[in-house]
Amino acid sequence: MSIDYKLNMLKDNIRKLKSAAIAYSGGVDSTFLLKVAHDVLGDKVIAVTAKSSTYPEREFNEAKQFAEEIGVKHIVIISEELDIEGFSKNPTNRCYFCKKELFTKIREVAKQNNVEKILDGSNLDDTKDYRPGMEAARELEVVSPLKEANLSKGDIRDLSKSMGLRTWNKPSFACLSSRVPYGSEITMNKLKMIEISEQFLLDLGFHQVRVRHHGDIARIEVSPEEREKFFSIELMDKIADRLKKLGFKYVTLDFFGYRTGSMNEVLTNQQKQL
Predict the structure, then answer these.
(1) Which of 7, 166, 217, 227 has its CA at a distance of 20 to 30 angstroms from the CA of residue 157?
(2) pLDDT of 186-202, one tens digit each?
(3) Which of the following is catalytic: 21, 175, 191, 193?
(4) Fold annotation for 176-265
(5) Which residues are annotated as active site (predicted)?
């Protein structure tokens, strides 16, 4: 199945919807989906972004800017995950609670704007990892057109590049809560430590960054090709000093580098069924 065939399938499927509310984070997938949907349906599309403590300010600003550039109606809602019962305790199905809250609020927005369907940016590759949020999407009848068109992350990046979208090579992003090990309580302070730490590393020139919060320990993940930057003693000292000032006692580098869902590596198959 060629990439052009998949793109045409995506457009045809969106065209059948007549109107749509996009769960829009400003990431690679939702930006691509928003652009295609807006091209196909015009002003029958709205973008809905949830602003919360798990969503970095830089991501929100980028999402807002792109929505303004293409002229789509952009609605911002407040979704404070820490207030959701069961979320802050950080169970293995944490994402289910978050997504259910998000899609419920987007459904209300869609109804107010006479929009028929809610769309999210889940792609084919997302089915290969542990994604409890997909269950919430199924329950609330959220449509995942990228997945339905068999579009992988690589396909979406390639198509985004050909369409001139600057997000084509944007690093993958997940909410800040995903940096905290399952079973460890999620707090506002932890989220702030993570956000500031990651922004500091991005400002130093790193492209793909995760700062995993293991209590007193910060476990830094960067893309494999960027690991050699840590060979600089001066840079290591600068990073260690900054993160210790934020509250970490120990600052470590994950030798394996960044990989999607590293916090899921400790889960058993039974835990993934919860």
Answers:
(1) 227
(2) 999 999 999 999 999 99
(3) 175
(4) Alpha-Beta Plaits (3.30.70)
(5) 175
Residue pair 95/132 in contact by the 8 Å Cβ criterion? yes
Q: Rounded to the nearest 10 degrees, what angle do helices 28-41 and 57-70 cross at?
A: 20
The answer to whether 98 is a known catalytic residue is no
Evaluate whether 211 touches 220 at the Cβ level (below 8 Å).
yes
What whole-number distance in Å separates Cα of residue 213 and Cα of residue 210? 9
Q: What is the pLDDT of residues 80-118, one digit of tens each?
A: 888 887 888 999 988 898 889 899 999 999 999 999 999
Coil/strand/helix, residue 192: helix
The interaxial angle of helices 28-41 and 3-15, nearest 10 deg, is 60
What does the alpha-carbon distance between residue 36 and residue 14 come to, in Å, rounded to a whole number? Answer: 9
Q: Which residues of the chain form CATH 3.40.50.620?
A: 3-169
Written out in words, the top-level CATH class of the domain with range 3-169 is alpha beta
CB-CB contact of 7 with 1 (8 Å): no
Both tokens assigned to 137: 């999407």
